[in-house]
Write a structure and sequence with these properties.
- A four-stranded antiparallel beta sheet has the order 3-10-8-5, with no helix packed on it. It has a four-stranded antiparallel beta sheet with strand order 7-6-4-9. It has a two-stranded antiparallel ribbon with strand order 1-2.
- The protein has two domains: about 35 residues, no CATH class; about 80 residues, Beta Barrel (OB fold (Dihydrolipoamide Acetyltransferase, E2P)).
- The protein has two helices and ten strands, in the order αββαββββββββ.
- About 20% of the residues are buried.
- About 15% of the residues lie in helices and about 35% in strands.
- By secondary structure, the chain is mainly β.
- The termini are far apart.
């Protein structure tokens, strides 16, 4: 069996985020000499946008910034060497996959939150992202 290395701090944050989004309050995992225990207060989950933003309070007029819902590494393609899922200047519809974020070997789709045209990506392909970090503009 392949030996697993202990999770990184970013990996643990990603796991905590996954637990928060899934409604899991407590999780414990151990493997070959390391362990991690998470006890989360789901009522204290932070708002990744830090309050009201124009995309929440105004109709879809003008460009809107889309924020990361996960911690991990952002990729424009679903697999290494594949064509990007979206490009700047491309028309997208709400729900279209525009990228992926990978954390601890888990892949989460980044879906357009509105119809529009991708103005620009705010994160480099292969760049680390944090929860609530701006990812792209859709106009």
């Amino acid at each position: 069996m392949e030996e697993l290395s202990p999770p990184s701090a970013a990996g643990i944050r990603a796991l905590a985020d996954l637990c928060l989004r899934s409604g899991v309050e407590s999780l414990e995992a151990a493997h070959q000499g390391w362990s991690v225990r998470l006890n989360l207060d789901l009522r204290a989950a932070p708002n990744p946008r830090g309050g009201s933003t124009p995309t929440e309070s105004a109709p879809a007029a003008g460009p809107a910034t889309q924020f990361s819902q996960w911690v991990g590494v952002f990729h424009r393609a679903a697999e290494q060497g594949a064509e990007p899922l979206a490009r700047e200047g491309k028309q997208v519809r709400e729900g279209d996959i525009v990228g992926v974020i990978i954390a601890m070997q888990l892949q989460s789709d980044v879906r357009a939150e509105r119809d529009g045209v991708i103005g620009r990506f705010l994160v480099e392909d292969g760049g680390a992202v944090e929860y609530g970090q701006p990812l792209l503009d859709i106009g």
